[in-house]
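Record 1 of the preview.
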Amino acid sequence: MVDDVALRAAFRDFTKAVIGPYDVDQMLHLLTGQVVEVLGVDGAGVSLAPTEGEALMFVTATDDDIAAVEDAQVSLGEGPCQEAYLTGEQVAVSYLELEDRWPTYRQVSLEHGMRAVAGIPMPVADRRIGALNLYRLRPHTWDREELETAQLLADMASGYILNANHMVEQSRAEDNLTRALESRDVIGQAKGILMAQHQLTAEAAFEMLRRISQTRNLKLREVAAHVVETSASTTGPTD
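->
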């Protein structure tokens, strides 16, 4: 049964998260907590792949028992979470005792008190990034509304994660651009100094920097910075 009030609260939380600072770890903790509140399950866990196609890594769980089950699932490479991630399809098990798939995972789950489980894929478009697992301490027939709601929450979290990664990549690109502009400026200063000191053209000054860079196995920016620093220290301030 889906708690509509808790579901609306989950939507509000996601909305606030999207417009605020991006913290993926916090979002995943939020996701597992929301699933428990919205669906009334006994616990939840999330495993993600560092990049698409790689093995899953356990990320977070609502309690120690589920953390142990999730960790075992990742270590064994078997279970509903693994299958949901690999196939992109939901995997619902109502009576874990009667399940003949994943024998070792099933045994670990039963030892930790789990009797029903559902694996929910976490895809965005054609990419697969992981899976969300739902757990119950008693046998449970997963209905369509539960699975659709769980998928909705998983999809929202997946979009958040990919967007967060995009923002990190964009930030790195901006950092690279900043460094490139800084390099351009210092190289320009160094060229001007060499042109003045040796009566060189701009092309000849740049070629001098390039030759020094190759000979000393240094980056062009480092050579240029040394030229600028040396010039500043030799001229110094005048009274």
